[in-house]
Structures are given as structure tokens and as C-alpha cells.
Amino acid sequence: MHNEHPDTDIAPPPTDGKGPRPRSRRVTRRVLLGGGVGLLAATGGTGAWAYDRYVRDKVEVADVGVAETAAGVSTVSSTDGAYSATGYTSSTTTITLTSTATGSGSEALAWYAADIQVTDATVIRSAFANDEFGQSIIEKPSAMAAAHDAVLAINGDYYGFRDTGIEIRNGVSYRDEPARTGMAFYRDGSIRIYDETTTDADTLLAAGVWNTLSFGPAVLVDGAVPDGVEDVEIDTNIGNHSIQGKQPRTAVGVIDDNHLVFLVVDGRSEGYSAGATLPELGQILLSLGCTGGYNLDGGGSSVMIFDGDIVNQPSNGGERGTSDILYVAG
């Protein structure tokens, strides 16, 4: 198990992901984490801390759409896009999907890659669960993708599991607590891996940053897998586990300006796909033509959605609620 929210390996109740946004998630998650609010409150001490940390929704921005409109962020959608079985083409975007399977038995590995080229960097966007920003707010990625008419989407950095990191999404700053290595998407189409602790959100916005992700580590830098990447830990808080070993993975790879790869590696299924180590993740991105690569939240969170359908086989047997997605708008 790796750095995921505490309900790892417990799948939420199934829904079709295409109807009204589910509002029962608060009750479900509280039951899963200790038998309900009463039990957590009764335990006091650690139980009360865990309830506040992992269960209680902490909404900081109640309507992200309003925040984006206030910041002058325009909506974007394509009226000339065309889907095929292996991709999508519009006046701003070209997506090519590929799937790969190697090995067998305990060495079997399967991954899904989307090669994405855009003419407008702001076509690459982020969305939050329930259109809210804060901690412990979750929604299924397919529901987030549907709500924003996403052509293609992957799970994001699960920012809601922590209270640190620089989180700039769609040109709006939501969190400015530098803590780790991040990935920054610029309006000019460049994508850079950077040290959060050397800057701040205002500086990044002034430099033209459109989106940031705060997770990691970087698994490919200047066309090489960094030494020691297999020993990196992202978080050490309670309920969080090592990101090492063979795991389901989600990553973003960089080929050039306005040219990137969304990658999902399936795992925890012997004979189909065991998952990838971090060095292996970097090597897969390298094989796809990338010179830079960044690890996102994985495990049961790893999912790719194309044209409303889940492309991969999530390790929980179905998609799991998370706090955010990264998507292609049109």
C-alpha cells in the first residue's frame, strides 16, 4: 500500500457515475472509519483527532466555479472534436491512446497511456470533488469528469489528504504551503518539475503558472531516472504508507511544450498486472518519449477515463472517490 487516503482498499458503494452527484459520501466514509461519528467522538484523543483529520469535510472554497469566474478564468469546450476507438481530435487537441501488456504471472504488467498534444495549454485543466476546495472532500473521478465534459481524465494528487503543498488550479491559487517537489504547468505550454520550498504561489502565478500538482516524486528528470527515487517518501502522517514497491500508478510525462503523456499503470492483480516500482514508472515514461515524469496518487486511486468510460482496471475493482482530477477539456 502506498500514499493514499486512509480508506485504502475499501471500495465505495458502486454508482454509474453519470447521475446527480452523490451526497451520501459523508455517512459512508464515517462508517468506514470507525463505525460512525459517535464512536470516533466517544474514543476521544486519537479518535477525535482522526475524525477531524480524515472524516470531517473542511470546505475552504464552497464554489470553485465562482472563484474561477472571479479570477477571469474562461470556460473552454470544443465544438469540432471527434472521438475514435484510439483517440480524439479537435482544433486544439490531439489524443492518442495506447495500451501495453508485458510479462506473465507475478511479472505481468499492464499500462495505459494517452499521448496529448494541444495548441492551447489551458485546455489541460483540473477539477475538484463537488466543485469545492478543502480537506476530506471526495467524489468519483468519473463524476468529476462528467460534470466538466472532460474528454480525458486521470486522478490528481489527492490534495485533500494533506494540508501542505502549493495548489494552483486553472489559474487560481488555493493553497500556499510549500513542502515538497511539485509539477507546474505554464500557460505557454511548458511543464516543469520544481522545488516548492524555493518559491510561493504568487510568484508562480506571476510567472504564468496555470496548474500545479503537489505529490511526487519526480521519476524522470532530463531523460533519466533520478538516483534514490526508490527511497523517497512523500508523507509520513498517520494512515499514510510507503509509496515504494510494485503499485498501481498514475503519472504525468513531459515530451515537449504542449506535448505530454497521461499514464496509468494497473497493479495488485497477479497474472494481469502486478504494478510498477517508481524506477519502472520512470522507465515506462522514457519509453513513451518523455524526458520528464512525475508520480501522482496511485493504488486504488489510479484511474483513466476517456469519453466517459474507465479505460483501466482499478485495483479496488472499481473507481474510488478522490479529491481531484486532471483532465483535457476539449
UniProtKB/TrEMBL annotation:
The chain crosses the membrane at residues 31-51. Keywords: Glycosidase, Hydrolase, Membrane, Transmembrane, Transmembrane helix. Residues 1-25 are annotated as: Disordered. Residues 149-328 form the Phosphodiester glycosidase domain. It comes from the Bacteria. Pfam families: NAGPA (PF09992). This is Phosphodiester glycosidase family protein.
